[in-house]
């Protein structure tokens, strides 16, 4: 669906569902995941439908993912950080152990 | 037990020690930057809050970073074109003007009419207070539900532009562009320069729209018109398949977009497709304005609300009681006020700054301000023609019962119509029984559609959902440590859930 | 000896008004109910839906026990499908957690007091039992009180169910019909001027909720209430992790997970009420303390976002329990309002006992503690009706 324009200069790594993905410092998590051809960011809590970003500017809330154990983060607004652990959010967010 | 909120030290403004600044500007897009520059140059203290990591809003998004990354980004910058590069001077001026307290990656989740702003950065939230607030939080894509619009692989034109600018990503595979408006033509031209050939560009607008619009044509519309015609000519030359007068758009697929169907001149067409890019114009983002209790007016042509403001951006409050007493200290500028594009936003931001400076210095409006006002008029002049030449299309498609209207809660037009038939007459009641507008987006994607459905049934003008803070998600930890307001205001008046342990005997026997 | 069937005007179509009307109509009374807006839109429809005995004022306990029985057998009172829509869940329990020594001490004292009075539904539990029931609770939780049979229901649907049941029983409801004033003739018959014209009845029952004091004043009765805008916050959906409703002892904590997974958090915080216009505002900075209390008990919720808040108008009395009883100054007039944010659970029993009182001619023992003259400064009140 999307491929890079020019060289990527992806010098750090994030993890999506435990898979390492090369990331460019300063880009959004959403862009990084789309470049990696991610098929879905989440499944909806109501019907389990697969969703990818729609608006990319923070208004549609379709791009919700879990980042470092915190759910409901908008991937289109979060900037990648080295070692960031991102997971697809399947249904409602999970609440686990220690956060932050 | 003391339930009072702990306070951090509040840094004083030069003007009033209880305030954090003279002016708070929400949004670092063209209008916000222009306003902040004007206010700071006049020696007033201004804080700018913006969600993005760098200034530029959506139109100039990531411009700084893309310029810095040359020559790697030369090809990208070439493709994005002069309208994008135009932002460089403004951003540089914004960065170099002393006195602007610029706070990126900061989300506004509350605005009160007394110029109190609730902000969030990471997991820290607080309040800031000023004499005036300029709301310049821009626009959003007009909601346009159609069958299959929630499928992975359906995105807005704005999304694709953002991916180009901030993601340095271009679409690949079979791309279809459907919709109307200058933005879709701009995007088509940018894609062409990147060597991307959509298999179809289907516009809902027609030649007849252009002819009807001619009577609104003003000389100032010549430049955008010429630009548009140039794009069209180049697209034609490149042999890209472009049609007008398309309708009945549907996206099909199981877990993702597989193909689209639509009508072109009455003929049904199906196209295998990997990315469907849709656009039906943009509308003011109203979340922050609604939270503050600003008076909003509905415009049928635009199928959206916008705040009621004077020319200088000063906003009216809606009738009725409000949270904070006193006059409204809010102005709205740029696309958040009315859609006008970057140049109009810059002009209006500057004009608002001039008026605020006159206000706070208690002087008459200067000659400078009159010039700014004239510039606003000039930059907005092409709009009536453009709006008439590219009327909204996808959002006028007849809504089928099983088309999703509320994306978050997956409610269809049929669900909403059924509730209306059962007697629901107001937006908040509908929201309460169906949950439309209760999801994470809090009605951003569905409010205009739900309001229109309700209005069709009742005949009254569409009204928005009742807006309460927070207008953006606020992490519990941030709320728990909320700081920054006067201790008296932060006082908890609590209704004790527990009765006294040492129960007093009440004799009733 | 029951009086012959009579006629009554009920002011206010929330849960209390509809429940009372339903019982009276079933006994053959002619019941007219007026509501200044749409019935059930205020406190009745937008509360947290708690079905709670736990930590009630002892004066409310007997009435609450009867009410709990009625919720348990709701299909006996409203039609079965309506009962179903109320989503009554009992047995999920309500738990009051003690997060420090003072609260623990209070919990012990309360438990002993309730046993002394003959009530055993509030169990005292230690840290171990508490953690067994709420594994995600903070380490600092010391123990608490639990009512295992407590639960919750759906307030909006319940308000509607009782309204429909009232109408099915013959209650005539006038919506968007405010009362302007009311006069009593020499025989004690009331004549009310309303937006739907003049309505006459031998009895008037003031079930006007947050507007109860205002309506009482129309009749010359001074029943003080403080109007609050009780606020709640709702988070994003979270996977189910907690069944009981959790409340605080000293801290402003009141917490449940809704059927869709969102967390609904209260705590008795008030926003800004605007009674005249029937609306209210959330004051976010006041909600900080209930968020803090929630995190003290459940630290792992730190990153869960609050998506929205709502507030509703409630009336609270000086002593935290409602007015339920005849007017001390006028005959043929009853006041039933001021439920301080916890009237939802009581409603079915309020309906039953008030109706019974009117029919039998004497105040039902379960509602005696709530007599309307208890704050009167003058002693000269003559009990009427």
Write up this protein.
- The complex is a heterotrimer of chains A (100), B (509) and C (385).
- Chain A is mainly β and 100 residues long.
- Chain A has one domain: Ubiquitin-like (UB roll) (Roll).
- Helices cover 7% and strands 32% of the residues of chain A.
- Chain A contains 1 helix and 8 strands, in the order E-E-E-H-E-E-E-E-E.
- Chain A has one helix at 29-35, and strands spanning 2-4, 12-16, 19-23, 42-43, 50-51, 64-67, 70-74, 85-90.
- In chain A, strands 2, 3, 4, 5, 6, 7 and 8 form a 7-stranded mixed β-sheet that branches.
- In chain A, 52% of the residues are buried.
- Chain B has 509 residues and is of the alpha/beta class.
- Chain B folds into 3 domains: 21-140 and 283-363, 3-Layer(bba) Sandwich (FAD/NAD(P)-binding domain), CATH 3.50.50.60; 154-280 and 390-394, 3-Layer(bba) Sandwich (FAD/NAD(P)-binding domain), CATH 3.50.50; 398-458, BFD-like [2Fe-2S]-binding domain (Arc Repressor Mutant, subunit A, Orthogonal Bundle).
- Chain B is built from 17 helices and 23 strands.
- In chain B, strands 1, 2, 3, 4, 5, 6 and 20 form a 7-stranded mixed β-sheet that branches. A 5-stranded parallel β-sheet of chain B has the order 8-16-10-11-12. Chain B has a 3-stranded antiparallel β-sheet with strand order 13-14-15, with no helix packed on it.
- In chain B, helix 1 runs parallel beside helix 5 (87-96) and helix 11 runs antiparallel to helix 12.
- Chain B is globular.
- In chain B, 55% of the residues are buried.
- Chain C is an alpha+beta fold.
- Chain C folds into 2 domains: 7-79 and 155-224 and 319-370, FAD/NAD(P)-binding domain; 94-148 and 226-316, D-Amino Acid Oxidase, subunit A, domain 2 (D-Amino Acid Oxidase, Chain A, domain 2).
- Helix content of chain C is 26%, strand content 27%.
- Chain C is built from 9 helices and 22 strands.
- The longest helix of chain C is centred in the first third of the chain and has 16 residues, at 101-116.
- Chain C is globular.
- Mean pLDDT of chain C is 93; it is low at 379-385.
- Chains in contact: A-B, A-C, B-C.
- At the A-B interface, strand 1, helix 1 and strand 5 of A face helix 3, strand 8, helix 6 and strand 9 of B.
């Amino acid at each position: 669906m999307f491929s890079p324009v020019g060289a990527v200069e992806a010098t750090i790594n994030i993890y999506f569902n435990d898979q390492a993905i090369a990331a460019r410092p300063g880009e959004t998590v959403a862009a990084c995941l789309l470049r990696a051809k991610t098929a879905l960011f989440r499944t909806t809590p109501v019907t389990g439908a697969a969703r990818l970003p729609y608006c990319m500017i923070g208004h549609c809330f379709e791009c919700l993912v879990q980042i470092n154990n915190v759910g409901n983060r908008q991937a289109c607004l979060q900037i990648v950080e080295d070692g960031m652990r991102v997971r697809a959010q399947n249904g409602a967010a999970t609440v686990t152990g220690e956060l932050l | 037990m003391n339930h009072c909120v702990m306070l951090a030290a509040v840094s004083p403004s030069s003007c009033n020690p209880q305030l954090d600044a003279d002016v708070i500007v929400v949004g670092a897009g063209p209008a916000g930057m222009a306003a902040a520059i004007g206010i700071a140059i006049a020696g007033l203290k201004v804080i700018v809050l913006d969600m993005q990591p760098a200034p530029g809003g959506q139109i100039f998004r990531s411009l700084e970073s893309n310029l810095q990354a040359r020559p790697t980004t030369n090809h990208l910058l070439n493709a994005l074109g002069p309208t994008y590069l135009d932002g460089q001077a403004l951003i540089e001026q914004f960065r170099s003007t002393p006195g602007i307290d610029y706070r990126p990656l900061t989300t506004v989740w509350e605005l009160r009419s007394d110029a109190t702003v609730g902000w969030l950065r990471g997991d820290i939230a607080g309040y800031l207070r000023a004499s005036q607030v300029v709301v310049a939080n821009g626009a959003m894509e007009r909601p346009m539900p159609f069958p299959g619009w929630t499928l992975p692989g359906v995105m807005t034109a704005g999304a694709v532009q953002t991916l180009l600018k901030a993601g340095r990503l271009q679409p690949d595979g079979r791309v279809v562009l459907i919709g109307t408006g200058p933005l879709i033509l701009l995007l088509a031209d940018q894609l062409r320069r990147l060597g991307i050939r959509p298999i179809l560009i289907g516009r809902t607008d027609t030649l007849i729209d252009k002819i009807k619009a001619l009577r609104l044509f003003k000389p100032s519309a010549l430049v955008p018109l010429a630009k548009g015609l140039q794009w069209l000519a180049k697209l034609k030359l490149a042999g890209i398949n472009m049609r007008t007068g398309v309708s009945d758009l549907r996206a099909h697929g199981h877990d993702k977009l597989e193909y689209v169907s639509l009508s072109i001149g009455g003929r049904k067409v199906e196209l295998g497709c990997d990315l469907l890019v849709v656009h039906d114009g943009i509308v003011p983002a109203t979340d922050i304005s609604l939270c503050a209790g600003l008076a909003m007016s509905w415009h049928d042509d635009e199928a959206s609300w916008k705040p009621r403001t004077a020319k200088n951006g000063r906003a009216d409050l809606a009738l009725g009681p409000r949270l904070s007493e006193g006059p409204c200290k809010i102005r709205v500028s740029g696309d958040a006020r009315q859609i006008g594009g970057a140049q109009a936003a810059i002009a209006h931001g500057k004009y608002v700054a001039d008026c605020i400076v006159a206000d706070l210095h208690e002087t008459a409006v200067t000659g400078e301000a009159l010039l700014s006002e004239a510039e606003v008029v000039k930059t907005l002049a092409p709009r009536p023609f453009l709006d008439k030449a590219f009327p909204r299309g996808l959002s006028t498609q007849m809504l089928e019962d099983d088309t999703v209207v509320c994306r978050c809660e997956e409610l269809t037009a049929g669900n909403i119509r059924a509730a209306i038939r059962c007697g629901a007459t107001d937006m908040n009641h509908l929201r309460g029984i169906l949950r439309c507008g209760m999801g994470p987006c809090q009605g951003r994607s569905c409010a205009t559609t739900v309001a229109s459905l309700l209005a069709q049934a009742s005949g009254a003008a569409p009204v928005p959902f009742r807006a309460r803070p927070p207008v953006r998600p606020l992490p519990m930890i941030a709320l728990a440590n909320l700081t920054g307001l006067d201790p008296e205001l932060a006082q908890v008046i609590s209704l004790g859930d527990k009765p006294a342990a040492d129960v007093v005997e009440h004799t009733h026997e | 000896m029951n009086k012959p069937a009579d006629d009554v005007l009920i002011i206010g179509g929330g849960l209390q008004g509809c429940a009372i009307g339903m019982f009276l109509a079933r006994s053959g009374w002619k019941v007219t109910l007026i509501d200044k807006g749409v019935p059930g839109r205020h406190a009745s429809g937008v509360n947290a839906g708690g079905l709670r005995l736990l930590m009630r004022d002892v004066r409310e306990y007997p009435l609450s026990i009867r009410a709990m029985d009625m919720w348990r057998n709701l299909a006996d009172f409203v039609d079965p499908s309506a009962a179903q829509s109320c989503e009554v869940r009992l047995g999920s329990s309500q738990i009051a957690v003690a997060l420090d020594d003072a609260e623990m001490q209070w919990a012990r004292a309360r438990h002993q007091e309730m046993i002394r009075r003959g009530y055993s539904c509030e169990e005292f539990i230690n840290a171990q039992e508490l953690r067994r029931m709420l594994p995600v609770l903070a380490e600092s939780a010391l123990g608490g009180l639990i009512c295992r049979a407590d639960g919750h229901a759906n307030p909006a649907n319940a308000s509607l169910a009782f309204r429909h049941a009232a109408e099915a029983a013959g209650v005539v409801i006038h919506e968007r019909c405010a009362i302007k004033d009311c006069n009593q003739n020499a025989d004690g018959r009331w004549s009310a001027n309303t937006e739907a014209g003049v309505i006459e009845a031998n009895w008037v029952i003031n079930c006007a909720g947050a507007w109860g004091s205002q309506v009482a004043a129309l009749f010359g009765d001074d029943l003080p209430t403080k109007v609050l805008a009780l606020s709640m916050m709702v988070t994003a959906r979270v996977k189910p992790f907690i069944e009981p409703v959790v409340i605080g002892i000293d801290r402003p904590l009141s917490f449940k997970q809704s059927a869709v997974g969102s967390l609904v958090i209260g705590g008795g915080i008030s926003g800004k009420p605007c009674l005249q216009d029937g609306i209210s505002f959330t004051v976010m900075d006041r909600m900080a303390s209930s968020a803090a209390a929630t995190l003290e008990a459940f630290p792992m919720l730190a990153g869960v976002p609050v998506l929205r808040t709502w507030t509703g108008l409630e009336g609270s009395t000086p002593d935290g329990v409602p007015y339920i009883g005849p007017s001390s100054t006028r005959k043929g007039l009853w006041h039933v309002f001021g439920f301080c944010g916890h009237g939802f659970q009581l409603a079915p029993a309020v309906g039953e006992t008030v109706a019974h009182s009117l029919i039998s001619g004497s105040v039902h023992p379960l509602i005696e503690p709530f007599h309307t003259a208890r704050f009167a400064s003058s002693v000269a009140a003559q009990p009427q009706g």
